[in-house]
Description:
Blueprint: E1 10-15, E2 19-23, E3 28-31, E4 34-36, E5 39-41, H1 46-54, E6 61-66, E7 72-76, E8 79-84, E9 93-96, E10 102-105, E11 111-114, E12 127-128, E13 137-143, E14 147-150, E15 154-156, E16 173-178, E17 189-193, E18 198-201
Parallel strand pairs: 12-15
Antiparallel strand pairs: 1-2, 1-13, 2-3, 3-9, 4-5, 4-8, 6-7, 7-8, 9-10, 10-11, 13-14, 14-15, 16-17, 17-18
Amino acid sequence: MKLPVEQRRISRILLDFDLSIEFDNGASIAFSEVVIDGLTVDEDNQFEGLRAFAALHGLVCEDADYDESGVLRLTFEGRQRVVAAPRDEVESWEYTAVDGSTVLCGPGGAVESWPAPEHQKAEPPTVERLPSIGATVVRLSTGDDPAVEFSDGTKLLFDLALDAGYLVLRESVTSSSHSDSAAATQGDWVVELSSGHVIFYRPRTV
């Protein structure tokens, strides 16, 4: 059985609670556990998975096939580079089409699907703005439109160095201001997180 992402390009890789890949048609696949080029990724090493998927950014999916046992295989450049097998207690993978229809592999390998909702709920857009004190980083993305997104609906539009991801995701904002420091350029935003990591950011739309 096929997922309709053949000949679609990986446009973004996202990490929030799960690790996801997004295609250029807006469809996405989220994984709780996945093997990427031989690397097994689960909740314990998601940042390694983010880097591994980032290496696939821009590649076109040649085949996306899942079998009756729930094993999903994605082929790029003539070989299977992404494999997601069922898990015993949680969902392994979930495909979401741009219209909201879904296919997922539930615990034990049970594959289920749902049609597009009659009235699809639109997610409120995030905006480029200084995050508020106490807001938490809820999502990192890399690829075509990289961003760091916060729980208050704000985002910073830049490609975070992936090695620093563990210092940023799920950390809360302790300081958020316009720069008056010699360490940053005038007009930059300075965001300090609870991990001690500091983001110097030049706004794009202000």
